[in-house]
């Protein structure tokens, strides 16, 4: 089985442009949201570049992301390694409950905010909140599913130089019958503004879309398919 899954963070207003791009091509994604930051109006300095980071409103979550998946990104986006146990439970558990109230289904996934800021303590705490998978920051540059879905490193960042090379390799690899090939791309839609890369990522989506040998899944669907395949 060959699976393509995407994961985008922060729920910024650029998602209003990005989600229809996915819908037009039949590609699914998971969107990791901070319930305590909905409606925030601000620009941020991201790697020395000022970029719009306004965040969507809570009443548009269900309609905007219909057909995709909503996942936890914590209430306020802290470094969880610097939080005590109760704060981790609040940031993860309260975000989970708030998002479930908005989307109307159980939320089981998350992305660690800010980077690869987790350890065994954090993993144990988020598991106790009902989280079944959690994406970290970093690129494996291969298509092997993770051994631990609570420490899930994606294949590629949407701005990685080898994104198209990985896409070509994924496409050209025959559909295997004895394992899962998992191509996982993550990013932030606000970076398409920051880097003027909307056209670049559109070309990537066009390259990946409409392939009969590729299954287009949310992160949760991809996790469940990998676990089912491995049984």
Radius of gyration: 17 Å
Shape: globular
Distance between the termini: 14 Å
Q: What string, H for helix and E for strand, traces the elements in order?
A: EHEEEHEHEHEEHEHHEH
The counted number of beta strands is 10
Structure class: alpha/beta
Sequence stretches where pLDDT stays below 50 over 5 or more residues? none
Biggest sheet: strands, sense, closure? Answer: 6 strands, parallel
Roughly what fraction of the amino acids lie in strands? 15-25%
Mean pLDDT: 97
Helix content: 25-40%
Count of individual helical segments: 8
Map the helices and strands.
Blueprint: E1 2-9, H1 15-25, E2 29-33, E3 43-46, E4 49-52, H2 61-64, E5 69-72, H3 85-103, E6 109-111, H4 120-128, E7 133-135, E8 156-157, H5 163-172, E9 181-187, H6 190-194, H7 198-208, E10 214-216, H8 219-230
Parallel strand pairs: 1-2, 1-9, 1-10, 2-5, 6-7, 8-9
Antiparallel strand pairs: 3-4
Helix pairs in contact: 3-4
């Amino acid at each position: 089985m060959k699976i393509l899954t995407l994961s985008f963070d922060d729920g910024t207003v650029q998602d209003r442009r990005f989600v229809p791009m996915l819908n037009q091509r039949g590609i699914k994604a998971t969107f990791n949201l901070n319930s305590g930051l909905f409606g925030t109006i601000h620009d941020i300095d991201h790697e020395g570049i000022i970029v719009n980071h306004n965040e969507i409103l809570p009443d548009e979550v269900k309609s905007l992301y219909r057909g995709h998946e909503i996942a936890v990104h914590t209430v306020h986006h802290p470094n969880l390694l610097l939080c005590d146990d109760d704060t981790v439970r609040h940031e993860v558990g309260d975000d989970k409950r708030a998002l479930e109230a908005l989307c109307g289904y159980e939320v089981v996934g998350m992305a660690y905010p800010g980077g690869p800021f987790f350890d065994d303590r954090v993993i144990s705490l988020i598991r106790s909140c009902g989280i079944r998978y959690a994406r970290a920051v970093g690129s494996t540059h291969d298509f092997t599913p993770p051994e631990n879905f609570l420490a899930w490193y994606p294949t590629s960042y949407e701005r990685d130089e080898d994104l198209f090379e990985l896409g070509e390799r994924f496409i050209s690899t025959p559909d295997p019958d004895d394992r899962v090939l998992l191509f996982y791309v993550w990013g932030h839609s606000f970076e398409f503004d920051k880097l003027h890369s909307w056209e670049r990522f559109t070309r990537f989506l066009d390259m990946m879309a409409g392939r009969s040998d590729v299954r287009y899944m949310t992160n949760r669907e991809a996790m469940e398919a990998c676990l089912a395949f491995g049984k």
